Design the sequence.
C-alpha cells in the first residue's frame, strides 16, 4: 500500500515538472518573439518622408532647375550687351555693331538696308550679317580687348566671370543635396540646399551688377566715337534666373521647417479651412 502511494506521488511530481517545462519553453518562445518584434520596430521606426512632402520638394526642385537652366543659357551666350555706333560713321551700304558677354565678343557687319530707317545707330545685332567672334584675351594672355576704340577693364570682366562660375558651382551642390534628400527620404539635406540655391541667386545678381560696371567703364575709356549701348536678352535670362533661384531657396527653407509658416502667421484662417 505504501509503495503504491509513493509511486503515485512521484508520477504527479513528474507530470507537474513536464507542464512547467512546457510553459517555460512557450514563455521563452514568446520572449524571443517579443525581442524580435522589438528589433523589427526599431529597424522600421526611422522617420520617413511623406508622399505629399516629397511632391512639394520635387515641385520646388523643378523651380530651381528652371533657374539653373536660365543661368546656363545666359552665361553661355554672348548677348549681354550690344554696342552700336551711328550709321553715319560708315558707308551707305554696311555698318558694324558689336555684342559681347562674359567670355567672348562679336563684331557683326550689317547691311544698312536691313536696318530700320528711323534708327540712328547700327543694329540690332540679331540682324543677319557677317560675324567675327573672338574670346577675350584677358583669360589667356591677360590683355584687354578693344571694341570700337573702347578698352575693357580686365579686373571687372574677370570678377563677373568668376562670380558666374561660383554661382554655377553652388547650383550643382544644391542639386546634389536635393537628390540625396529624395533618395534617402530625409529632410536634413533641404537646409544646405536652401543655402546653396539662395547664395547662387545672390551671386547671379552680383554678376549682373559687376558686368554693368564693366560696361560703364568700357564706355568711359574713350569718347572719340559716340556709341549707344543696350543690355540684351542674355541679361534678361540671368536676371530672371537669379530671382527664381532665390525663390527656390526660400521654398526649400520653408519645407525644412517643422511647422508651416502660413499656419503660424494665420492660425485662425488655416484652422477654419
Sequence:
Amino acid at each position: 500500500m505504501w509503495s503504491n502511494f509513493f509511486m503515485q506521488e512521484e508520477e504527479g511530481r513528474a507530470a507537474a515538472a513536464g507542464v512547467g517545462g512546457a510553459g517555460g519553453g512557450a514563455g521563452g518562445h514568446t520572449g524571443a518573439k517579443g525581442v524580435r518584434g522589438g528589433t523589427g520596430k526599431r529597424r522600421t521606426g526611422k522617420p520617413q518622408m511623406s508622399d505629399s512632402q516629397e511632391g512639394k520638394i520635387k515641385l520646388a526642385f523643378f523651380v530651381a532647375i528652371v533657374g539653373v537652366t536660365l543661368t546656363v543659357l545666359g552665361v553661355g551666350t554672348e548677348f549681354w550687351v550690344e554696342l552700336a555706333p551711328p550709321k553715319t560713321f560708315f558707308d551707305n551700304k554696311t555698318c558694324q555693331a558689336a555684342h559681347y558677354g562674359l567670355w567672348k565678343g562679336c563684331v557683326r557687319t550689317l547691311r544698312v538696308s536691313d536696318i530700320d530707317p528711323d534708327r540712328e545707330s547700327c543694329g540690332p545685332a540679331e540682324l543677319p550679317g557677317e560675324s567675327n567672334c573672338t574670346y577675350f584675351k584677358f583669360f589667356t594672355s591677360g590683355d584687354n580687348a578693344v571694341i570700337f576704340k573702347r578698352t575693357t577693364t580686365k579686373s571687372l570682366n574677370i570678377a563677373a566671370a568668376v562670380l558666374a562660375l561660383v554661382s554655377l558651382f553652388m547650383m550643382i551642390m544644391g542639386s546634389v543635396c536635393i537628390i540625396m534628400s529624395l533618395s534617402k527620404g530625409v529632410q536634413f539635406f533641404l537646409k544646405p540646399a536652401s543655402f546653396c540655391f539662395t547664395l547662387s541667386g545672390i551671386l547671379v545678381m552680383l554678376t549682373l551688377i559687376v558686368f554693368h560696371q564693366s560696361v560703364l567703364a568700357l564706355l568711359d575709356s574713350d569718347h572719340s566715337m559716340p556709341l549707344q549701348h543696350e543690355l540684351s536678352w542674355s541679361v534678361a535670362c540671368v536676371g530672371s534666373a537669379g530671382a527664381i533661384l532665390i525663390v527656390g531657396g526660400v521654398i526649400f527653407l520653408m519645407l525644412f521647417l517643422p511647422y508651416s509658416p502660413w499656419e503660424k502667421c494665420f492660425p485662425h484662417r488655416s484652422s477654419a479651412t
Notes: The beta strands are 81-84, 94-100, 104-111, 129-135, 146-147, 150-151, 228-231.
